[in-house]
Write a structure and sequence with these properties.
There is one protein chain. The protein has one domain. The chain is built from 6 helices and 6 strands; from the N terminus they run βαααβββαααββ. The chain is an alpha+beta fold. It starts with 10 loop residues before the first strand and ends in a 12-residue tail after the last strand.
Length: 210
C-alpha cells in the first residue's frame, strides 16, 4: 500500500526511531541474552562431543598462514551472509507489496547495507521481516556449529546474531501493536518506522433512555 493513502484524517501516526549511535548500541544489547545462550550451548556441545576442556575451541592451531586463511574465510562468509540477510528482508517485504520488486530498495548507508520497502505494510508482515534473517540464517548455522563444533562457523553465527540487533530493537518498539489492522512504513532516512493506526469514528449512542 502506498504511503499517500494513510492521511491524517483516517490514520493517526507515530514515529519509532533511533539514532545511528543508539542503533549500534542496540545491536550489542538486544542480542546479548540470545548470544550468551548460544555460547553456552556451543560449549556444552564441544564437551559432549570431544570431552575436552571448554576453552580449547578458541585455539585455531597451526601456523600464521592457517590463521590468515580462517580470517579470510570468516570475512568472506560474513559478507555473503550480510547480503543474504538483506535479501531475506526483501522476500518478506514482498508479501505485502502491491507493486512487487519496484517497491524494494537496496543500498549502503554509514557502511551498513540495508533493504528498504517503499510501501506501507501490515505490522504482522513488517515484524516477520524484521525477525526472518535471525531465524533463517542463525538457526541453521547454530545447528551446524553444534554438530561440527567448528570455531569458524561459531564465530560467523555469533556475528550474525549481533547483526540482527537493530532489527530486534525495532521489533521490540512495535511489539504491542495488532498485526493485521495496524500498518507500518519502514523509514529510509532513519533507523525505525512510522506506525499508522486507523481512526475509528465514534458511533452514535442508539440506546433508549428508560
Amino acid at each position: 500500500m502506498q504511503k499517500g493513502s494513510f492521511t491524517s484524517d483516517l490514520y493517526k501516526s507515530r514515529k519509532y526511531s533511533m539514532s545511528i549511535l543508539k542503533a549500534n548500541l542496540a545491536a550489542l544489547v538486544y542480542p546479548l541474552p540470545l548470544a550468551i545462550l548460544y555460547i553456552a550451548a556451543f560449549l556444552a556441545a564441544i564437551q559432549l562431543k570431544t570431552n575436552i576442556a571448554a576453552g580449547f575451541f578458541f585455539s585455531f592451531g597451526g601456523s600464521p598462514a592457517i590463521l590468515l586463511l580462517y580470517m579470510l574465510l570468516y570475512f568472506a562468509g560474513f559478507f555473503l551472509l550480510v547480503v543474504m540477510h538483506e535479501i531475506i528482508h526483501s522476500l518478506f517485504f514482498l508479501r505485502g507489496c502491491e507493486q512487487g520488486r519496484k517497491s524494494i530498495v537496496f543500498g549502503v548507508k554509514y557502511a551498513t547495507p540495508y533493504c528498504h520497502c517503499k510501501e506501507v505494510l501490515t505490522a504482522s508482515i513488517y515484524r516477520q521481516s524484521l525477525m526472518a534473517p535471525l531465524w533463517a540464517i542463525c538457526l541453521p548455522l547454530a545447528a551446524i556449529s553444534f554438530v561440527t563444533c567448528n570455531t569458524l562457523i561459531f564465530l560467523i553465527t555469533l556475528s550474525m546474531i549481533f547483526g540482527s540487533g537493530g532489527d530486534m530493537a525495532v521489533f521490540w518498539m512495535i511489539r504491542k501493536f495488532p498485526g493485521k489492522n495496524t500498518f507500518v512504513w519502514d523509514m529510509d532516512d532513519e533507523v525505525g518506522c512510522i506506525v499508522y493506526e486507523q481512526i475509528l469514528s465514534e458511533e452514535p449512542d442508539t440506546k433508549k433512555i428508560s
